[in-house]
Structure formats: structure tokens, C-alpha cells
């Protein structure tokens, strides 16, 4: 993360006291990226943090988000199917109630 305003100040203050933690929970230190994409960018990371390739470092998070998105889509599809089933069952129930009422009325006319 870049040093500077806002919530980053809290992290910087904690870094001074030595209590900043990496996203994985290990103690973090300030590192500096020298990639083409982020030359000179400062950030916090633990000894396991792969600062040289952010795509690789956060790949597990991207995979987790994609998996969660797919699960949500699957569950949304199931919910939509269940709503259709409920609608059909309600319609069938109304038809059966109407048929039952017709039978009772016919019997009463006798």
C-alpha cells in the first residue's frame, strides 16, 4: 500500500511501532516494488509476499472470488427454478380447490 493519507496513516503508524500485519496475518514490513507497472511503489508485505508479481500474489483471492461468483450464480439459478415450481404448485392448488368447490356445489344441488 502506498504511504500517505487516510487509512494508510494508521498502517504507517503501526509500522513505526512494529505491529503491522500482512494480509495473511504475519508481521509485515515496508517493501518497495520495482515493476514496470508500479515502479518505486511502497507497500506492506510479509516475508512470503510475492511483491514482484501482484497477479501471482493475489491469484488465490481472484480464484476464490471467481469460485464464489460461480456458486452464487448456481444458487440463483436454483432459486429461480424453485420459484417457478412454487408458482406452478400454487396454480395447481387453486385449480384443485376450484374443482373441489364445483363438486361440492354439484352435490348440494342434488
Automatic annotation (TrEMBL):
Question: Would the keyword Metal-binding turn up in this protein's UniProt record?
Answer: yes
Q: Where is the GRF-type domain?
A: 22-64
**Keyword Zinc-finger on this protein?**
yes
Q: Which Pfam families match?
A: DUF7900
| Keywords tagged on the record | Metal-binding, Zinc, Zinc-finger
- GO molecular function per UniProt: zinc ion binding
The name on file for this protein is GRF-type domain-containing protein
Q: Say which species the protein is native to.
A: Brassica oleracea var. oleracea
Amino acid at each position: 500500500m502506498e504511504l500517505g493519507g487516510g487509512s494508510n496513516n494508521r498502517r504507517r503508524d503501526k509500522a513505526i511501532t512494529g505491529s503491522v500485519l500482512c494480509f495473511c496475518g504475519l508481521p509485515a514490513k515496508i517493501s518497495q516494488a520495482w515493476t514496470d507497472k508500479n515502479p518505486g511503489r511502497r507497500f506492506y508485505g510479509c516475508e512470503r509476499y510475492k511483491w514482484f508479481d501482484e497477479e501471482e500474489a493475489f491469484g488465490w483471492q481472484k480464484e476464490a472470488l471467481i469460485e464464489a461468483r460461480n456458486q452464487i450464480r448456481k444458487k440463483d439459478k436454483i432459486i429461480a427454478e424453485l420459484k417457478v415450481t412454487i408458482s406452478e404448485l400454487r396454480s395447481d392448488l387453486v385449480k384443485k380447490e376450484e374443482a373441489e368447490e364445483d363438486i361440492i356445489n354439484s352435490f348440494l344441488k342434488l
